[in-house]
Design brief:
about 180 residues, alpha+beta, Alpha-Beta Plaits, 9 strands
């Protein structure tokens, strides 16, 4: 009997690990796209984004001039590459919102979240314990309209990086929506 219990425990643990690894920490991103006026524009952006190997699905919304992008599980994601593909297609962004599952995020402080080589510096919250799914809006001049970015420029310069580890591929200032 003990041997059967051990086998059952190992099988249960194995399948739980597989199931847990299939959940993505970064669930999706939403992009506001400036300049989308027709289906051809939308198709051009979509085709440009499809060249990125970490993207699983793209849903374009011409009416709201936006896109929702989901990523392949366990892939290395780069928002900078996503934005570059949008620019390469001839468009700009007015927002980038990241939907994350906090169950998988490393929270090194009440102002810094880390995952997959990306660090998120929170500039609008004193909360020290995030749970469940949250939306983070990236605050950066390349990811939003200049007028909108200027509202946060002073806060960003006063807050510093807060995420002291230099091993991140990308570091972003974000607000929690």
């Amino acid at each position: 009997m003990p041997f059967k219990n051990l086998i059952a425990f190992i099988a249960f643990s194995f399948f739980n690990c597989i199931a847990a690894s299939s959940f993505s920490q970064v669930v999706s991103i939403s992009l506001g796209l400036d300049g989308l006026t027709c289906p051809l524009c939308s198709r051009g952006v979509e085709n440009s984004l499809k060249k990125l190997t970490f993207i699983e699905e793209i849903t374009m919304d011409l009416e709201n001039t936006s896109a929702t992008i989901t990523f392949k599980p366990n892939s290395t994601v780069s928002y900078a590459e996503v934005i570059k593909k949008v620019f390469d297609a001839g468009f700009s962004t007015r927002f980038l919102i990241v939907r994350v599952n906090m169950a998988f995020m490393n929270q090194s402080s009440n102002k810094c979240l880390n995952y997959g080589g990306i660090s998120y510096q929170i500039i609008n919250s004193e909360n020290s314990a995030f749970t469940g799914f949250i939306n983070l809006q990236v605050i950066d001049k390349d990811y939003m309209q200049v007028r909108e970015f200027s509202k946060y420029a002073k806060t960003i310069s006063e807050s510093g990086t807060g995420c002291e580890d230099k091993n991140f591929r990308e570091v972003y200032n974000v607000i929690i929506l």
